[in-house]
Amino acid sequence: MTSMLVASAIGPSLHDLRPLKPDTVPGDEPGRFPVYPDLVDQMATAGQAADPEIAHALSVCANYAYASVAGFCTEPDTLARMMARMGMPSNSTLMVADRVDVSFIVSNGFVIQSEDGRVAILCYRGTEPFNPANWLTDADLESEQVTIQVGQHQLTVHPGFYRNVRATRSPLIAALDRACRGRSVVDEDTTVPNRLEALYVTGHSLGGAMAAIMGLLMLNDPAYAELAQRLRAVYTYGAPMIGSPDLAQEVATADQAQYFSRFVYRRDVVPHLPPWGLGRYRHFGQEYRPGRNDHGWIAASGNSLQGPFSSVAMAPVEFISRTIPLARYLWFPYSLSDHLPLNYVSWLAPPGVASEYGDYAAAQ
Fold it and tell me: What is residue 128's predicted lDDT score, i.e. its pLDDT?
């Protein structure tokens, strides 16, 4: 079965986010939206280095890319609403979803465009926990040899991840092209005040792998030169490895690693995939891990390495053990629980900053 779904949504205005409440100066009371009043300005002027507020905002984006209707139909409305709360009110959000189960394709991409047109986010949805086709995508390493141009060489990438990028690439790239020309990502005939200035690519889990591949395509394919000029950074959360050590070395040689910021929470198992025995893989870009007591982050001196299959295979057991009181404190080398996207949202929220619902954490 195959079908492509294209849908769009307009994020609420600040007034719509606070029905029955008076408009006041941002930050004057707890629970006020937006979380980051200057988020669009920050994203428009930031460089490639990881920024704490942008990292938090994009982790929220990656988390709510999982939103669905009745638990099975992907929809853009929730993501548009959440990004309005974070600091992109009245945004335009385009969703493109394609699914071909027999080819292990479950591809969901979103383009979120700020109201003024200066900023856009390309966000990919990650692995759906109870979708067998998604897990087969992650495991699909031998169906074909796929290469992409990086620097001066053609290098292999994970075929399952690449196929998912290809499935929805054309309409997503067309939407970003509209943004570059000062048009709405959801409607060619609608203009926006500014042409696109800053583009970010993000995703959690499988979505992070897709984001990394799309970032490389933008930086190395001459057809995407305009997008490459506007690409500020690729932020990924709990993403697996997408290519060989040779690819990682070529990314560094081509001076492209600076675009990629990878966040790894505690013992999250997925950044250690694919495991040993299924080919040689290596991460690229700067890896960040939780600081002391999970406050802030530290730049890791190295990258997460491939894990042994036997240890990786125990991660689902760890997840189940969390539901059994007597087994809750058993130690496992890798954790599936730590992979949940909400962990990344909670970890990356700066101290004193409200959540995407406008709430403040209780004092410890």
Answer: 67
- Rounded Cα gap, residues 93 and 275, in angstroms: 36
Query: Which residue from 122, 123, 283, 289 is spatially nearest to 203, judged by alpha carbons?
Result: 123
Q: How far is Cα 177 from Cα 56, in angstroms, rounded to an integer?
A: 26
Q: Single out the residue of 88, 276, 113 nearest to residue 187, CA to CA.
A: 113
Contact between 252 and 216 under an 8 Å Cβ cutoff? The reply is no
Q: What 8-state DSSP symbol labels residue 259?
A: G
Which residues are paired to 110 by β-bridges?
95, 123
Give the relative orientation of helices 132-139 and 159-180 as an angle to the nearest 10 degrees: 100
**Closest alpha carbon to 198 in 222, 179, 224:** 179
Phi, psi for residue 154 in degrees, rounded to 5: -90, 120
* pTM attached to this predicted model: 0.93
Reported as half-sphere exposure (CB side, CA atoms, 13 A), residue 120 has a value of 32
Which tokens is 169 given?
């690439």
Measured CA to CA, the distance from residue 363 to residue 23 in angstroms comes to 27
Handedness of CA 180, 186, 189, 193 (dihedral sign): negative
Confidence of residue 72 (pLDDT cuts 50, 70, 90): low
